[in-house]
Amino acid sequence: MEERPQPTVTIEEHDEPLQFAAQSPSLLCTLEQNNIDVPYQCREGYCGACRAKLVQGKTVYNQEPLAFVRDGEILLCCSKPITDIVIKLT
Question: What CATH number is attached to the domain comprising 84?
Answer without folding.
Answer: 3.10.20.30
